[in-house]
Amino acid sequence: MDFKITLLPGDGIGPEVVGEAVRVLEVIAAKYKHAFNFQERLMGGCSIDKYGSSLTDETLADCKSADAVLLGAVGGPKWDDPAAKDRPERGLLALRKGLGVFANLRPVKVHPALIDSSPLKPEKLKGVDIIVMRELTGGLYFGQPKLREMRDGREYAVDTLEYYDYEVKRIVELAFNLAKGRRKKVTSVDKANVLEASRLWRQITTKIGKENTDIELEHMLVDTASMKLITAPASFDVVVTENMFGDILTDEASVLAGSMGMLPSASLGESGPGLYEPIHGSAPDIAGKGIANPAGTILSSAMLLRYSLKLEGEAAAIEKAVDEVITAGVRTADIGGKLTTRQMTDEIIKKL
Ligand code: NAD
User: Fold this and answer.
1) Of 203, 222, 257, which residue is a domain's last?
2) Which of 46, 134, 260 to mutate to test the pocket of ligand 1 (most atoms within 8 A of CB)?
3) CATH number, domain at 253?
4) Which positions are annotated as active-site residues?
5) Is residue 114 part of a domain?
6) Does residue 71 sit in the same domain as residue 19?
7) Cis peptide before 145 (omega within 30 of 0)
8) Which residue range is the domain that position 15 belongs to?
9) Running DSSP on this structure, what letter comes out for residue 192?
10) Probe ligand 1: pick from 86, 280, 298, 342, max atoms within 8 Å of CB?
11) Are 92 and 117 in contact (CB under 8 A)?
């Protein structure tokens, strides 16, 4: 089959890890007789440098017309000036909004061979297999008003946490659907004891829970959830939550797996292309050294095959190959080894 994939390597280690994922996808294409047509575009700091904009209209249009988008990472010290009129992160938010990808899925599984890379006690990590679903296009990061001004001679800033019922409904329904194919438990995280938007979130989630009695629904306050993710991570299956809570909890959950470099993510909407990216940033401290762990991006490309191209067998083949090399002790520096980005990918490709 023929597919169009837009690549947005971005900044820092982004191009290094996306390049490796493309090598893996090319092996898959040859083995399973598909044609992946890659088109590479600038996004983030590199796009500010070249076009004066972190995401141009043309790049967004190329993403929208693709079957899927694979992103590396954006940002870095060069573009960190808070007073700058455009920042790499703005491009990322505009891309998510533009593609209408409202659900960010981050699977967190602890590989038995990497248990010692995690700061948590090994006995806490047994059986950890979580998918955190973060609402991505609403909530505190997008709500209006959002401004900064002088009021009564004082500096004043405001952000707004807002949700419409349909925004909550579509992501919670997705969480229930996902849980049906897993351990049949949904934990909905909110702050309903304080926030009105959370009370709406909980009301809608409770209603969906009543329509899906085969799924166990648990409501949890975000403060409790942040504690339980560390003290009892194996008790979670699918976790669904608001944009900012999800931003924080997903990074916390990533610590369970030992290294940020190992974890993939997928951002999905109701229709149109999905956006796939590793959870880590542009890692300016190691950029250009060729030592970044490519696994998070390679596993993101597996999610791309599964969710956007519906190639489940091909996705599972990549996941199995990554699993096997980790079991065999193949390691980049972040997980205690000495291999380069390219050597780690070579080992994964050998398993394919
Ligand atoms: P980071 O994820 O880039 O790096 C955190 C630490 O993890 C660093 O020590 C880095 O070397 C290490 N690391 C990250 N990915 C790795 C990999 N694949 N292999 C080995 N080690 C890896 O986070 P940061 O340092 O807070 O942010 C750096 C820049 O990235 C900032 O400009 C930030 O805004 C940006 N950022 C972008 C995204 C994104 O594009 N989605 C996400 C987070 C941060």
Assistant:
1) 257
2) 260
3) 3.40.718.10
4) 141, 191, 223, 247, 251
5) no
6) yes
7) yes
8) 1-101+263-352
9) T
10) 280
11) no
| Residues in the ligand 1 pocket, defined by CB under 6 Å | 13, 17, 73-76, 92, 260-261, 277, 280-286, 292-293, 296, 334
Quick one: tokens of 69? Answer: 């988008």
d(CA 94, CA 49): 18
Q: What are 334's two structure tokens?
A: 């972040």
* Residue having the nearest C-alpha atom to atom 12 of ligand 1: 283
For residue 36, report the distance from its CA to the centre of ligand 1, in Å: 28
Of the three residues 225, 257, 289, the one that is the final residue of a domain is 257
Ligand 1 atom 27: the closest Cα is on which residue? 281
What digits encode the pLDDT tens for the residues 77-126? 999 988 888 999 999 999 999 999 999 999 998 888 888 878 889 899 98
Counted domains in the chain: 2
Residue 238 lies in a domain: yes
The alpha carbon dihedral of 295, 322, 125, 304 has a sign of positive
Same domain for 238 and 183: yes
- Domain-embedded: residue 108: no
Residue nearest to atom 38 of ligand 1 (CA): 281
* pTM greater than the 0.90 cutoff: yes
Residue with the two structure tokens 């199995």: 320
In ligand 1, which atom is closest to the CA atom of 79?
Answer: 32
pLDDT tens-digit profile of 38-55? 999 999 999 999 999 999
